[in-house]
Amino acid sequence: MSDAPQETGAAIEHEKIERQQVSVDIACVGFGPAMGGFLTTLSRNLMNPDGSVRLESATSQDLPLQVICYERADGLGFGVSGAVTRARGIRGSFPDVDLTQIPMSSAVKKEKLVYLLDPTRASHRSFAFRAADRALRSLGFIFGLKHEAFELPYTPPFMQKHEGLVLSLGQFNQWVSDQIAASGLVQIWPGMPVAEPLIVGDAVTGVRLADQGTDFQGRPEAGFTPGMDLRAALTVVGDGPVGAVGRKIDADANIGMPPGHESREWALGMKMVIELREDSGLEPGTVLHTIGFPEPEIFGFLYVHPERLASVGIFVPSWFRSPVRTAYRYLQHFMLHPYLWRDLEGGTLKSWGAKSLQESGRHGEPFLVGNGYARIGEGSGSTNVLAGSGVDEAWTTGVHLADAVIELAEQKRAFTRENLEATYVHRRRASWVDDESKIAADARNGFQRGVVTGMIGMAVAGLTGGRVTPAARPAPRGMPSLEEAYGSRIAPNELKQMQEECAAKGTSLHDRIMDRCGWPQISMDGKLLISHQDALLMGGGVQASSGYANHVSFRRPDLCRACETKLCVEMCSGQAITRGDNEVPAFDREKCVFCGACLWNCQADSDGTHGNIEFNAGAGGLHSALN
Questions:
Q1: Is the four-CA dihedral 195, 200, 201, 204 of positive or negative sign?
Q2: Which end is more exposed in the chain, N or C (fewer Cβ atoms within 10 Å of the end residue's Cβ)?
Q3: Which of 289, 36, 262 is nearest to 170 (CA)?
């Protein structure tokens, strides 16, 4: 393999291929809560009550606006996760509907914030955490310590989801899409990855679908079908923080991120949906937020759905400065904590999944609009990073845009930047979403300096309504070397030997290091505690569609060879990226769940500003509607 990417003649000629051109009024990319809010609101207003057209199409005479939505995943309920939300915006869209009738939905009934001590004595705890553990163990009879956990008597208001909902986003998205489809006015196409936006100068004029009938390198084969160009007066971008369209707009010099804004804080959320044993005792609507274990930097959650189902998971943040950070094994240790295992033991894995979360909030907000396009949802910086809340916020941004589109279409005004600023952005800036985003903007600044500093900063920002926050947003700290991170626990020569052995076997390094640091082996039970690969098959139903180019590639192999830790390998949710030949990672599309963790965990800069991983549009991934 050469150090420079190979560009074949077929690939060079690829852009000269004639493509089918189709025109619509509105092209939408990605179907999640934000797009659900947008299409729900818009579809209700395309026609008048008497059946006449209210919002007329500019492309199809005597018809309403022609709206089409493309979703990468093979199913509209695949590849997302469980959530707890206050559901203010969602309930506003369905005032007469009992949302707890949606499968796997429940009203929030009980909410706790729990500090988990380390029962293994293996985690990397600061002096403050070690002192807290010792104090709680010594005075547990006073603090009510049980099962190596301390239930805090108070959950801060900014974290509370009182009167909210526990949801399966997969089931919720499916239900919402069914309501939209019933109108017969909007087309939603799953299993249709969008390769890129069509950008002309400072305007987006539509999108291009991914080519089909190619080999893994994108070269045309028998049955090749060029991706169609869909021209639209308005392109609605809701493909999430790692979506191909949103990221390519971000990278464009003319229409990308505002000065000073960047998405550099991330987290990987990984969770399992578990069927609890009959005598578990966890009632639907129970919500647990945890801190302290398996590592102080890793937050955890447990949400209980009806019919003895529970979503259990962790968030592994980008500021967890371990060069071999990982998720799946930490998730297993989290579930095995005595406080949780007393209810989870005997359960059965029903589903599993992972997703990257954009944690920069307002600091990662792109230009929300431009000529011919608008951004909604998580990729638009809508997540409230103080409350850890994003579903309702995303939905509400979609509603705001729909209201703006209705206003502009009724007045026959074009979808220009100026008009979208005056309608969509104006509504968003005047909403609770923006008010709470301002409060949360700097709440997490302290985490770059340490977990305790970060949690104190969050508490102060939340309790003062954002009036008092940590110091200015610090520059991100570089990842420590293996020796810097683990030299106090493992001799340098032993670390080097571990690296060499793992490289020779093509295996990840985190298991070896965790074993050496005292983390106990996981005793597999074949039901809930299963291997990572079994989780892909039993819990995720991971599949890869044929006929598409590989969506993950490495721009400069020489940078991969020089990378010490191969963090993309350690953090890959599906073990799709492994140590390959000649120290260049190998990619197996049959295991990829499209979590996007490789993007923000790449430690190499191919051009000084972007990582060394190319993450493009692709089909397949998770195939579980329970997520």
A1: negative
A2: N
A3: 36
